[in-house]
Design a protein that fits this description.
CATH architecture of the largest domain in chain A: Up-down Bundle
Order of helices and strands of chain A: HHHHHEEEEEEEEHHHHHH
CATH topology of the largest domain in chain A: Butyryl-CoA Dehydrogenase, subunit A, domain 3
CATH class of one domain in chain B: Mainly Alpha
Number of strands of chain A: 8
Oligomer: heterotetramer
Structural class of chain B: alpha+beta
Strand order of the largest sheet of chain B: 1-3-4-7
CATH superfamily of the largest domain in chain A: Butyryl-CoA Dehydrogenase, subunit A, domain 3
CATH architecture of one domain in chain B: Up-down Bundle
Strand order of the largest sheet of chain A: 1-4-5-8
Shape of chain A: globular
Number of helices of chain A: 11
Number of helices of chain B: 11
Mean pLDDT of chain A: 92
Number of strands of chain B: 9
Strand content of chain A: 5-15%
Order of helices and strands of chain B: HHHHHHEEEEEEEHEEHHHH
């Protein structure tokens, strides 16, 4: 056990920090949930990719620099500390890419990974349906085989930035007689497919950050099938592992937010005097980000030792999502009379954070997983 | 010691509840979110007609001579309907404060206000006055109460997360009122508490209804023990905040010596209740509650705003600590 | 709505306060969970009864003064504020007596109520069994009819102060073929019955506050059957209503504890300086006691208006039991290095409080009741 | 950055776990609760034989030259077994502090202590020294470190809720050590954190085992979602406290500049974890957990004591706030 960073790791950190300091836009970009902001964020992804920072842990041939997991965690610490923009390509990079690496053919890997990493093709997830939220096995959208094509009928919802995305990764029922987990397939669908319409839904903040997808005879070629036909559930669950685990929310994001919260407290204390009741909430948020940091490095060591990430990813999902809410709620409380103002980054962050305990498997489901799969309690 | 309301009070509450159920459905609240004023088309007039708008004025000034114990149930209803009208600023704070001040300013404004012809605004000094642009006279409550006529005043607007709450910094010619600023502040905080209770109750009711009919994994979401206990926890907070808010209303009306401490008690409990109800409602609804098109957020954001307004939980906890001498 | 106390109520309060000030023992009694302390507490019950304060809300012929519910609440406020001892007869007075009033014959009422109120006969509850805790319908102890007698076989447990009590009120299965809620009866059993042995179990603090009861052919006459044979479940549930509701834990008890907590904070702040993080916990405890007070007075008005206490008693059970734990935990935290000492009344109170969320229906069951019976959520 | 333990460290942990599983079952802990010393019959000797007792001393003094990163896993095991022996006072604090001080006092005591022939006690200055009566030299840690030989000292005993923790106020002839009191305090707080994690883990494991086999209403108590989520919450707290406690151990060993802040982080998380685990364990066990005869309370009370010892959560939160400059 040696919790100091190696000279190579320190060097990597310095390089990232230096590049970010020189390249991060001085002014915040417009919200990525608006059409203009989406394109601004895409342009930022190009810059990141071209400098080799978009997907540091990927193989070089797909635009990465084969960084270790520790280096990726370091990059994330530096990235968020620098105040850099949110990552508009993260759904593709974090949720889809691990599946492409594991289940994609080499043609699919060559076709999709670089454009995804560069933000040339931005991906949105098409899994949820109006009647299948946390209960994904209830998916009804059908994809009937017609020669080399699948013909899709049905409806998807809650596709983040689905109104602007270039591609969707969808879970559909290719065996019409199947039930629950059987008979599903994992299909990649171009946004410009005929018979597919994406309609924006306003998010909590009123911005068109969600879309509903309506499939009415949309034809997709079988080369866009990821994994085997009818094996979509197993393929998707691999992605779910990433979604809940290390790939989605690195501690750096929350460490940076906690540091900003500490700064906010100091700034307000200078002008309004200290507020000791709320100070304790600031300390709690800071502690949460640190606890998450050390737990993540400990998990990295376990993974390096060959252990699977498995159900323990549920621990991380619950922690970061609830930490994120508390952290932003604390900031709003610190702001007092300004807490209700819509034009603050803390309110934006709060609204965003509130989705955390819901998506990617609600935290109630995560707690079921912890109790049943980690602790071994009886399912019924 | 009698915590029961009179038949008249209950009837008044029911009449207002019926009015709001008919005239203030979510579509109407949404209109107020989008329009120029943040207010509804005809609701303030309808409330004036029922006598609600001026109820807290003495009968001699055209009011109903009622006090906070009469008003508290109506404030709960206003919260339950997410009513975007200045019942707090005008009826709970403005009118009794003007009546207390008397003199030329009351002469000039009180009867019009009671009749609903002039609207009174209110804000904490150094904070924002909600709806100042649609008010005629704004009371800024700090170490003293400054009354600022809106005509000729400079107004700087800020956007609230609740789009029906138009936030204004107000600056203009002012008259210092001969009225107790501590009492006026407590009237506002007490009224906000009652509204929080109403908002929280709606959030709970709407969520109970939703989870009873939404199925996941083959059974109603509301049959899962985790969901049940989330909702039971929200119900617990509301169950204990409501009597505290009503007791605070009585303390104000009766001039209880512990008024400030017990208004703070109400505001803490009500703020925490509505905060928990909002979190719980969103979590139990899942993704649909997270959309702008679904109505839930109208109450959620009203709850966030009212919970922070007129002293949030931490501010009032400090005031209680001071009252306890610790 | 008039939340001032009437002149008559104020007079009642003054009378109680004056009597208590003159009569409450200057030194705390020994723990009522020890043999000696039990008898000290019994003697105190005699004094209370003889002065007319033991059961203020009862009819005069049983030793009460027919006080209103508000007056009873006032008495409790004064009682606990005075630092008076715990009530060793409370299981009988709070849990059994309401049932005797509702279901007892007039002979039973005449036989049992006065001695119970005076502490001449102290009662313990014999409901739980090793395999039937929260799930009371799983009761196995059998009472077989033999002429005018019932012959009891089986085992009860968690009888508070059962090693010292004079009588037990028991729930037993009189129909051997019955299941669950059917076929139970409510029997009153003298402690000196042949074939009944009470063995002490140590409570968390090591004191013999619990007992197990072993019935081996214990014969009880049918005149000690409370309510109809086989109707024990309905009879018992009436008692459960009292146990969870107004009768068991009046707000006065927690108001007094919260006041002592505030005093403790002041005392320690004088000697060690203020401690603002912990101050907030003191405020929370004080607020909880006040919230419970106003909710109770509001409930009193509803009851007076003819509403049943019903499932809403579950709200009160959850509130007071969790408040009691937090209140004492806060005190132990305030005590710092002395917090772990066994010889403090706060530690005694903490250990006692910890039983609150468990007994009389765990708080998990109370939350089920709130969600199913008050909110109307589906049972399954 | 490498959070993995070496094979040697894991083997040492397993050896100690096996020893404690065999030699420190609940009956042995109960004996320590009831006897004159609060300690076990042979366990300290067995630990000395394994090298545990003196492991933190330099090899030149007969120790194993190990540091906090080697010790932390053993402290977790000590917590898991509710070991009533002075691993914290003697091995985690006493020996490295004496070694640091050097000079005559180390000359006089260190080798004996390493061999397990003399026992070192420790207490916060103005607080209690646990087990002082069975120690030979007690270190009182405040603004400076005062070493008091027990022979000839006056000891005033107080009863802890954990009967194996004999609490003593110590007063006697003293030597001020030439060692850093802040470091010694952090060693104690860090060791308490690791023990808290172990205690919490046992409480969780024992409860999981109990609720999986206890039936109520026709199914295992552990199949109720409310019980599951209680236990998941306790598991969450432990999952995040453990790496923090191990990181704190590394900070002490490595002389990290943020040592004090990060020891406080560990102590807050570990104290809160064991507090929640104790509450959860009792609640999920129900009445049986509330009895003296059932073993659960041995860990519950150790948890209460360790959570409060060497700075409770509030004290360490304050220290973190100070380190953050707020």
């Amino acid at each position: 056990m040696d919790l100091s960073f190696t000279p190579a790791e320190e060097e990597f950190r310095d390089e990232a920090r230096t590049w970010l300091a020189e390249n991060v836009p001085a002014e915040p970009l417009a919200s990525m949930d608006t059409p203009d902001g989406f394109e601004e964020h895409r342009a930022w992804e190009h810059i990141l990719f071209d400098a080799g920072w978009a997907v540091v842990s990927w193989p070089e041939r797909f635009g990465g620099r084969e960084a270790s997991l520790v280096e990726w965690l370091i990059f994330e610490e530096e990235y968020w500390a620098s105040g850099a923009p949110g990552r508009v390509s993260s759904n593709g990079v974090s949720l889809l890419a691990p599946t492409v690496f594991d289940f994609g053919t080499s043609e699919q890997q060559d076709r999709f990974l670089r454009p995804m990493a560069r933000g040339d093709e931005i991906w949105a997830q098409g899994w949820s349906e109006p009647d299948a939220g946390s209960d994904l096995a209830g998916i009804k959208t059908k994809a009937q085989r017609d020669g080399e094509h699948f013909v899709i009928e049905g409806q998807k919802t809650w596709c983040s930035r689905g109104a602007f995305a270039d591609w969707f990764f969808c879970l559909v029922r290719t065996d019409p007689d199947s039930e629950r987990h059987a008979g599903l397939s994992y299909l990649l669908v171009p946004a410009d497919t005929e018979g597919l319409e994406a309609r924006a839904i306003g998010r909590l903040d009123g911005e068109p950050g969600f879309a509903e997808l309506f499939f009415d005879g949309a034809r997709v070629h079988e080369r866009y099938l990821l994994g085997g036909e009818g094996e979509g559930w197993a393929v998707a669950m691999a992605t779910t592992g990433s979604e809940r685990g290390l790939n989605l929310r690195a501690p750096g994001r929350f460490m940076a937010a906690a540091d900003r919260l500490v700064d906010l407290y100091k700034e307000l204390a200078d002008s309004r005097g200290p507020d000791l009741d709320r100070r304790d909430q600031v300390v709690s948020a800071w502690m949460g980000s640190q606890a998450y940091r050390w737990q993540t490095y400990a998990t990295e060591a376990r993974l390096r030792g060959g252990a699977p990430i498995g159900s323990e990813a549920s621990f991380m999902k619950v922690l970061w999502s609830e930490l994120d809410v508390e952290l932003h709620a604390t900031a709003l409380r610190l702001l007092g009379r300004d807490g209700e103002r819509a034009d603050s980054s803390w309110m934006d962050g709060y609204v965003f954070a509130l989705s955390g305990p819901i998506y990617a498997g609600t935290n109630e489901i995560q707690r079921n997983i912890i109790s049943e799969r980690v602790l071994g309690l009886p399912r019924r | 010691m009698d915590f029961s309301f009179s038949d008249d009070q209950i009837m008044f509450q029911e009449a207002v509840r019926d009015l709001l159920a008919n005239e203030c459905p979510p579509e109407v609240v949404r209109e107020a979110w989008e329009n120029d004023t943040g207010r509804t088309d005809g609701l303030w007039g309808a409330l004036a007609e029922m006598g609600v708008v001026g109820m807290t004025a003495p009968e001699s000034a055209g009011g109903l001579g009622m006090d906070e114990t009469d008003l508290v149930l109506l404030l709960e209803e206003a919260g339950r309907a997410a009513l975007p009208e200045p019942l707090l600023e005008h009826t709970a704070v403005g009118i009794p404060t003007l009546a207390e001040a008397g003199g030329a300013i009351a002469e000039a404004w009180l009867e019009q206000a009671v009749a609903g012809e002039a609207t009174l605004g209110a804000g904490a000094d150094g904070g924002y006055a909600v709806g100042a642009a649609t008010s005629d006279l704004v009371l800024l409550i700090g170490d003293e109460i400054r009354a600022v006529p809106v005509a000729g005043a400079s107004l700087v607007e800020h956007q609230s997360v609740d789009w029906s709450r138009r936030l204004f910094e107000v600056d203009g010619d002012e008259v210092v009122l001969d009225a107790d600023p501590g009492l006026a502040f407590d009237r506002a905080a007490g009224a906000a508490s009652a509204q929080c209770v109403g908002v929280a109750q709606h959030l709970l009711d709407a969520t109970v209804e939703y989870v009873a009919q939404r199925y996941q994994f083959g059974k109603p979401v509301g049959s899962y023990q985790a969901v049940k206990h989330h909702l039971a926890n929200a119900a617990l907070k509301i169950e204990f905040a409501r009597p505290a808010a009503r007791h605070a209303a009585w303390c104000i009306a009766a001039g209880d010596p512990d008024r400030s401490r017990d208004v703070s008690l109400a505001k803490v409990l009500a703020s925490e209740a509505v905060d928990l109800a909002a979190r719980t409602a969103l979590q139990c609804h899942g993704a649909i509650g997270y959309t702008f098109e679904y109505d839930l957020h109208l109450w959620m954001k009203r709850g966030w705003a009212l919970s922070a307004a007129w002293g949030d939980a931490a501010w009032h906890r400090n005031r209680i600590a001071a009252a306890l001498g610790i």
